[in-house]
Amino acid sequence: MTSDQNRTVFRTCPLCEATCGLEISVNPQEQIVRIRGDKDDVFSHGFICPKGSTLKQLHEDPDRLRKPMVKRNGVHVEVSWEEAWKEVERGLMGVIDRHGRGALSAYLGNPNAHNLGPQIFSGVMLRSMGTRNIFSASSVDQMPMHVAGGFMFGSAQHIPVPDIDHTDYLLMLGANPYMSNGSLCTAPDYPGRIQAIRARGGKVVVVDPRRSKTAENSDEWVSIRPGTDGLFMAALANVMFAEGIAKVEQRIASQMNGLDEFRTAVLPFTPERVTAATGVPAEDIVRIAREMCAAPTCAVYGRIGVNTVEFGSTNAWLVNALSIITGNFDKRGGDMFTTPAAGGASTRGTAGKGKGFQTGRGHSRVSNKPEVLGEYPVAVFGEEILTPGENQIRAAITVAGNPVLSTPHSEQLDRALADLEFMVSIDIYLNETTRHADVILPPPSALEKDHYDIGLYVYAVRNIANYSEPVLQKDPDSPEEWEILVKMGAILQGLGTDVDPAAMDDQNIFAAVTSAVATSSSNISGRNADEILALLNKDGRRGTARMLDFMLQTGPYGAAFGANPSGLSLDVLLANPHGVDLGALEPRIPEGLRTPTGMIELSPPLLIADLVRLEASIDKADNSQMLLVGRRELKSNNSWMHNIKVLTKGSLSCTAHVHPDDAARLGLSEGSTVRITSRVGFVDAPVEVTDAVRQGVVSLPHGWGHGVAGTQMGVAAEKAGVNSNILTDDQVMDPLSGNAALNAIPVTLQPA
Ligand SMILES: Nc1nc2c(c(=O)[nH]1)N[C@H]1C(S)=C(S)[C@@H](COP(=O)(O)OP(=O)(O)OC[C@H]3O[C@@H](n4cnc5c(=O)[nH]c(N)nc54)[C@H](O)[C@@H]3O)O[C@H]1N2
Ligand SMILES: Nc1nc2c(c(=O)[nH]1)N[C@H]1C(S)=C(S)[C@@H](COP(=O)(O)OP(=O)(O)OC[C@H]3O[C@@H](n4cnc5c(=O)[nH]c(N)nc54)[C@H](O)[C@@H]3O)O[C@H]1N2
Ligand code: SF4
Ligand SMILES: [Mo]
Predict the structure, then answer these.
(1) Which residue among 257, 575, 594, 657 has the highest number of C-beta atoms inside a 10 angstrom radius?
(2) Residue of 49, 464, 647 best suited for mutating to test ligand 3, as the one with most atoms within 8 Å of CB
C-alpha cells in the first residue's frame, strides 16, 4: 500500500479549548496513519500540542468501551444495546416508582463542552428527568464567571475575552496557558500569542502562587498567597481611583450604572492593608495599577486559580471591573465579547436588552445552596445522596464525567455513588466513577463523530466557525452520542425503549423552526416553516448536523435559508474544511448587552455586598498555614487521558511540589513521601522540592488516583498517582456561584 492511496481529512481537536485543526491521514483499511497540525487551519495555523495526535491512540485503546456494559454480581459484562436499554428503563423507572422524580440526578462532565451531540441534545435528556438535582463540572470550574457576567451584562454567557492578539499589556491571574492552552479564551497556540505581545513591545504579568511555565515566559511573576486575588484586584482598583488614573471611556460610561458605588466600595482596600494577606508588596500593587492605566491597551484575564476559590464570583467580577475602569472594556486590545456564529446568547433576542440573570430559583435540600444556571453545586452531590429524607437522590446519570476524581471531598462522593439504587453512565471508559454504574453506555470515539465547537467559539479570540465531519465510520449497530441522549430522554418520559431517536429529533427541529419563524428578532421571522424544514432536511440531514445548520443559518452571519446568499450555513462550512475566519473581535456595547436595564451593571448588589466578606478575610489571613493549590500539565487532560501510554511515559507527574524552605522545616526531601492532611482526608504523595512554588504553598495536580478495583484502564493503573480531591473540602465554596474551592485549601504536611 503506498501512501498516496491514503486519504487526508481535517478535523478540529476536541480535547481542550484551543480547537486546533488536525490533518489526519487514513489508509485504505480505514486506519489512522498520522495526525499532525493542519497548517491551513484558519485559527491554529498548524499548531498542535502532544495530546492532539493521540486521538489515534485514544481511538485504538483496547480499554475504550465499544459495547454497553451491565453490572452483574458486581462485575461489568458486555451486553447488546437492546439489553442495556431494557436495563436502563428498569432501573430508572423503578426508582421513579419507588421514590418519585425528585430522587433522580444527573452530572454532566467537561467533555460535554467539547462534543456536538451533548451540546445540542443533553437538554432533551435533562428536561425529561423532572428533577432539580442537576450537577455539572461547571461548579468545579467557571461558574463564578457566569455569575459575574450574568449580573453585569445580562446572561451567563456574557464572559469577556481578553483580546490577546491586540493587547499591549496582559494581566493574567490564576491561569497557566503554557500547560492548559487556555480556557474561556479559545486561542490555539496561546503561548505563541503571549510571546507576540512581548515581541511587539507589550508586557505580560502573571499572578500565581507558583512560578508556572507561563510565569516563567512572562515579563513579571507576581507571587501571591493563594486565595487572595480579590484583595489584590480590589487594591489595584483602589489605587486607580485614589491616583485619579481610572478612566472609563465615555461610550461605556454613558451605558453603565454603578461607577460611584464601585469607587466607594473599594475604598477599604488600600495596598498597605492587603499586602500582608496577599504577600504582594504594596509598591508592586501601586506600580501595576499605574502600568495598567498607562498602557495603550490592557487586557485582564483570570481563570481556574481565581475561580475555584472562596471568592470566585467576586474575583471574576473584579477582573471585568478592572477592564472597565482602565478604559479597556469592549475595546480592541482590551476585554471584548465574541460574536459567535451559532448559539450566542449575546446575539439572540432583542439587541441591547434582555431578561437578565438571576440565581437562587430553588435551593439544595440538605444545605440550602442556591441554584445557579439550573444546577446545584456538585460539592453537595454526595450529601444529597447520603442524607435520608424526601427527595434523597437514589439514582444518578453521569454523562462524560468523572466526579470521583474531579470534585471535592471525593471520598465521600465515592461512598455515595456506591450507595445509589441505580446509576447509568454515558462514557467511553470503565473508570473510578463509572465503576459504580449499573449500566455504561459508550458513545462512538471522537474520530467517529462530527464536530463543531458551539460552546468554545463563544469565547474565542477571533470569530471562527469550523465544522468537521466524522473521520471514520462508527459501528452501524451503535448509536450516535446524540441518539443515546435522546433515547435516555424518551425512557425518562416513560415512553419505553422502542422510541426512535429520529422521531424525537424531528420533533425537536420542528419546534425550533416554528419558534424561529414566530420570533420577530429572528432572521427567518414570518417565513414558511415547511419551506425551511424542507431546506434543512435536504440530503437526509439529521441530528447534530441538521440542528447546527439551523443554528448557523439563523445566527448573526447566517444565510437565513436563501435570504442572505453570502451568509453562513453548514454547506459553507463543508466547503471550507480549514474553517471560516469571521474576523477579529469587534466592540459590542450596547448592542451585545442583555440586562433588563440595557446598561452595564458595574455594581451588582450581591457582589458589592460580598466585599464585606472579602474585607473580613484580611484579618483572617494566617501566614503560617500551608495552603494546597493544583496545577495542570501539558500531557494530561483532567482525569481521563492517562490511559494513553505516549502521554504518561516518563516520570510520574503526580508529585507534591514543596518549597525548599518548607521542605527543610518539615523534614521532607526530594523523592520522599509526604502525608498531606486536610479537614476531610489525607493522601501520601512523592515530594518534589522546587522553588517554583511560593513558600507556604504545596501543589498537587488533580485527576489522578487510578488503579481502583473495578476499573478497566490498564495503562492508567500503572501510574495511578493520588487523588488530590480527597483533600478538597465540600463545605468550602464560593457562596454566590456554588463553585467549589479547589485551591487555597488549608493543609498540614508531615513525612509519611
Ligand atoms: N482539585 C482540582 N479539581 C478539579 C480541577 C482543578 O483544577 N483542581 N479542575 C476542575 C475542572 S476545570 C474540570 S472541567 C473538572 C472536570 O471534571 P469531569 O468532567 O468530571 O472529569 P474529566 O476528567 O474531564 O472526565 C471526563 C469523563 O468523560 C469521559 N469521556 C471522554 N470523552 C468522552 C466522550 O466523547 N463522550 C462521553 N460520553 N464521555 C467521554 C471520560 O472517560 C471521563 O470519564 O475537574 C475539576 N476538578
Ligand atoms: N494539558 C491540559 N490542558 C487542559 C486541562 C488539563 O487538565 N490539562 N484542563 C482543561 C480545563 S477543563 C480547564 S478549565 C483549563 C484550565 O486552564 P487554566 O486556568 O490555565 O488552568 P491551570 O493550568 O490549572 O492554571 C491555574 C493556575 O492557577 C494557579 N493558582 C492556584 N491557586 C491560585 C490562587 O489563589 N491565585 C492565583 N492567582 N493563582 C492560583 C495555579 O498555580 C495554576 O498555575 O485547562 C484546560 N486545558
Ligand atoms: S492544544 Fe488542545 S486542541 Fe490543540 S492539539 Fe492540544 S489538546 Fe488538541
Ligand atoms: Mo475545566
Answers:
(1) 594
(2) 49
Long-range contacts of 535-540 (CB under 8 A, 24+ apart): 535/561, 535/562, 536/509
Average pLDDT of the chain to the nearest whole number: 97
| 218 touches ligand 2 (CB under 6 Å) | no
Please compute the mean of the pLDDT values over residues 297-317 and round it to a whole number. Answer: 98
* Ordered alpha helix ranges (H), 554-678: 570-574, 605-620, 645-648, 660-666
- Residue tagged 451533548 (cell numbers): 118
pLDDT at residue 3 in the model: 53
Nearest CA residue ID for atom 5, ligand 3: 52
pTM, full prediction? 0.98
Q: Which one-letter DSSP state was computed for residue 417?
A: H
pLDDT of residue 21: 98
Whether the Cβ atoms of residue 426 and residue 402 lie closer than 8 Å to each other: no
Q: DSSP 3-state assignment of 370?
A: strand
Biggest alpha carbon–alpha carbon distance for the chain: 76
Closest C-alpha to ligand 3, atom 1: 49
Secondary structure letter of residue 115 according to DSSP: -
- Give residue 418's pLDDT: 98
User: What's the CA gap between 697 and 694, in Å, rounded?
Assistant: 6
**How many angstroms separate the CA atoms of 34 and 3, rounded?**
11
Q: Given the CA of residue 137, which atom of ligand 2 is nearest to it?
A: 12
- Which ligand 2 atom is at minimum distance from the Cα of 179? 1
**Alpha carbon of 168 to ligand 2 centroid (Å):** 23
- Residue 1 is predicted with a pLDDT of 46
Output the pLDDT for position 652: 64
Catalogue all structural domains in the chain, each as residue range(s) with its CATH number: 3-60 (3.30.200.210), 69-140+359-584 (3.40.50.740), 163-342+589-611 (3.40.228.10), 624-751 (2.40.40.20)
Go through 716-742 and write b for each residue having 16 or more CB atoms within 10 A of its CB, e for each that does not.
beebbbbbbbbbbbbebbbbbbbbbbb
Confirm or reject: Cβ of 173 under 6 Å from ligand 2. yes
* pLDDT tens-digit readout, 695-730: 999 999 999 999 999 999 999 999 999 999 999 999
Q: Whose CA is nearest to atom 42 of ligand 2?
A: 210
**Ligand 3: residues within 6 Å at CB?**
13, 15-16, 18-20, 48-49, 51-52, 181, 188
Retrieve residue 302's grid coordinates: 483570570
